[in-house]
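hi support,

uploading two proteins for the ticket. first:
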Amino acid sequence: MANSTSAAFPDYLFPADSLIILSTNSGASLLADHGLTLGVSSFPSLPNEGGTITLLSSTNVLIHFVRYDPGNYENEIK
């Protein structure tokens, strides 16, 4: 993948049909009041122009992905 960055998650079992907030290890406790939070060491930065976040299994099987775009910021119907 061109211009891609990756980060490894700590061992964690994601509950089915759940949402999780990902952050740096140091930021996880600050976000914990907002829901299930997982700190990731070497958290990658996300480009301001948008992109795709992809979640892969340890065997490189696609689990989920989401595209984001700066046009979604402060958009009432997002």
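and the second one:
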Amino acid sequence: MTEIRLPFIGPDVEGCRLIQWIVSQGEEIEIDQDLAKLQLDDEVFYLPSPLDGVILDFCVVEGEWITVGEPIAYIEVE
């Protein structure tokens, strides 16, 4: 099991809001596949997967604020 954490977004950025999960628990994912829709101020962007694997569990719920470096999901790496 591997943690996916919110990566560095930019200078002076401490975190962002999770707007929507695009994937589901149990779903197979590929590198660079969009995992979640995030929002920082008025900007909406997508978080790509850093690995291939299967989504095991989510650590945050939609609407929640996430800080940089915080675990957001667990995947089983293939």
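thanks. also noticed: The chain is about 0% helix and 55% strand.
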